[in-house]
From TrEMBL:
Whole-protein residues included: 1 to 517 of 719
Organism: Paenibacillus pinisoli
Keyword line: ATP-binding, DNA damage, DNA recombination, DNA repair, DNA-binding, Helicase, Hydrolase, Isomerase, Metal-binding, Nucleotide-binding, Zinc
Keyword check for Glycoprotein: no
GO cellular component: bacterial nucleoid; cytoplasm; replisome
Family listed: Belongs to the helicase family. RecQ subfamily.
Cofactor: Mg(2+); Zn(2+)
Keyword DNA-binding assigned: yes
Name of the protein in its database record: DNA helicase RecQ
GO biological process, alphabetically ordered: DNA recombination; DNA repair; DNA replication; SOS response
Helicase C-terminal domain segment(s): 218-362
GO molecular function annotation: 3'-5' DNA helicase activity; ATP binding; DNA binding; four-way junction helicase activity; hydrolase activity; metal ion binding
Reactions mediated catalytically: Couples ATP hydrolysis with the unwinding of duplex DNA by translocating in the 3'-5' direction
């Protein structure tokens, strides 16, 4: 692949490939359908742009991100590659002109938004043009199991299949669990694809979960040390974005606010200000970020837990794209779960989709509570194993004292075991508390031998304890809107007294725990 390396140097001015890039490019050029899962900032674009340069004809790039298309086409122009895009940002005349030029084979790369594509267009393009490769960016959008399903992606496979000469298909995404990757390959009808999963670990990011703090104070202290750094604060709702934006200004820092409720002009303006460091802190909902490539974001702070780990890591991963040390902080409160659950319930998905979202939410919750290395937890989730502990996340750095909670664990596990997987965490906590709740009494749960076993603790703390046991894998929650809790195989050794359970706890929890013994 000398040619590829030469082009990398000549066209892009880079000395070497990043992890995975060369194999992917080689695979495509040799004629293999491809499914590549590379983290945000991993350098996906080059993986299809270089093959486009190496192969004769026009490569189609399907991408849902209008702003990203423009950025990419601009930067391709800067390095002397002919490229264009077709999306809703073009006026009718411009659109026709691009299409006309495209039909004459003037572009090496043509970016197209999936909504813009239809069967006749595919037909015409493929009759008139030599299309060696179709690159599908953000390919997880084709999967119901992904976190950003877009129905327009579903049509692609059919159209591609009906093209007179089926081009190679290369699908790219930053976030796909193994399940989603399988689904992408099936939905896009990839032909015996080569699969690549690389580089999810981001060694320059320090991940932390911070819980049980006064968020406003935390933010104040945090920003004080970072006045001259660029950072993004993500909130779950537009209203919160406005509020937190206001708080940041109270602290005397310029902040931009970005969410879907603002006009296109306002958003574009704020984005530019942030990009050129006129505004240091961007407070935004998840509407911000698709395709932004600001290298020097030093921190990404989540004001609340997002709905799934894919979204979290994608958003957090916008920190440190230049490779410099950066921080990703998640402020977490157990109540965040309720907010996310509400968002799912109010969402547009059907029942199946909602139940998938609920199980993703539980995984996010587990991340927020785990004591495992956070970097390991995430890459494991994305199917990459054998990554060493990072040594700098909040779990790795946690020096707090470990408390023996084996007895508490036995009580909780035996109670949940006796409830036979028919109830949720809230009900299990009520039983352990010995609550006189009407539903509980109606089910006769006060007759369980474990009823009231943990009455010395507040009910909320018992629920937290149960969630902790879920996060550590001793119990599991079912999928669906009203998840029930049941034991996993890991519970047995604890119940049999063969395994001890210790928990690293903050002072307040420590007091409660010691009160029980
Ligand atoms: P993403 O995977 O998020 O689409 P990009 O393709 O936008 O990532 O690449 C992220 C950044 O890394 C870009 O600024 C890109 O120019 C740069 N980059 C990609 N490949 C290399 C390389 N081999 N050497 C140096 N920089 C690279």
């Amino acid at each position: 692949m000398e040619k590829a390396l030469q082009l990398l140097k000549e066209v892009y001015g880079y000395d070497s490939f990043r992890k995975g890039q060369e194999d992917i490019i080689e695979g495509i050029v040799e004629g293999h359908d491809t499914l590549a899962i590379l983290p945000t900032g991993g350098g996906k674009s080059i993986c299809y742009q270089l093959p486009a340069l190496l192969l004769p004809g026009t490569t189609l790039v399907i991408s849902p991100l209008i702003s990203l298309m423009k950025d990419q086409v601009d930067s391709l122009h800067r390095v002397g590659v002919s490229a264009a895009f077709l999306n809703s940002s073009l006026g009718a005349a411009e659109y026709r002109e691009v299409l006309r030029n495209a039909m004459q084979g003037e572009y090496k790369l043509l970016y197209v938004a999936p909504e813009r594509l239809d069967a006749p267009m595919f037909q015409t393009l493929s009759e008139q043009l030599h299309i060696p490769l179709i690159a599908i960016d953000e390919a997880h959008c084709v999967s119901q199991w992904g976190h950003d399903f877009r129905p327009s992606y579903r049509q692609l496979a059919g159209w591609i299949g009906r093209m007179p000469n089926r081009p190679l298909v290369a699908a790219f995404t930053a976030t796909a669990t193994e399940e989603v990757a399988d689904d992408i390959a099936a939905m896009l009808r990839l032909n015996n694809p080569r699969r690549y999963v690389t580089g999810f670990a981001r060694p320059n990011l320090s991940l932390s979960v911070v819980s049980g703090v006064d968020k406003k104070r935390f933010l104040k202290d945090f920003l004080k040390q970072r006045e001259d750094q660029s950072g993004i604060i993500y909130t779950a709702t537009r209203k919160e974005a406005e509020e937190v934006g206001g708080i940041v200004r109270q602290f005397g820092l310029e902040s931009g606010v970005y969410h879907g409720g603002l006009s296109d002009t306002d958003r574009a303006e704020t984005q530019e200000q942030f990009r050129f460091d006129q505004v240091r802190v961007m407070v935004a909902t998840n509407a911000f970020g698709m395709g932004i490539d600001k290298p020097n974001v030093r921190y990404v702070l989540h004001w609340q837990m997002p709905g799934d780990l894919e979204s979290y890591y994608q958003e957090a991963g916008r920190a440190g794209r230049d490779g410099e040390e950066s921080d990703c902080i998640l402020l977490f409160e157990p109540a965040d779960m309720q907010v996310q659950r509400f968002l799912i319930e109010q969402g547009t998905g059907d029942t199946e989709r909602k139940s998938i979202q609920m199980s993703k939410l539980h995984m996010m919750m587990n991340y927020s509570r785990t004591q495992r290395c956070l970097q390991q937890f995430i890459v494991d989730y994305f199917g990459e194993s054998d990554v060493p502990v990072c040594g700098k996340c909040s779990s790795c750095l946690d020096k707090s004292e470990a408390v023996d909670r084996t007895e508490d664990a036995k009580m909780a596990l035996s109670c949940v075991g006796r409830m036979k997987g028919r109830f949720g965490v809230t009900m299990a906590a009520k039983v352990l508390k010995g609550s006189r709740d009407k539903r509980l009494l109606g089910f006769g749960l006060d007759r369980l031998t474990t009823y009231g076993l943990m009455r010395h603790l507040p009910e909320k703390e018992i629920a937290d304890w149960l969630y902790w046991l879920v996060a550590e894998g001793y119990m599991r929650l079912s999928e669906g809107q009203y998840p029930t809790v049941s034991l996993t195989a890991s519970a047995l050794p604890v119940l049999e007294g063969k395994e001890m359970i210790s928990q690293r706890v903050r002072a307040s929890v420590r007091q409660a725990a010691s009160a029980s013994s």
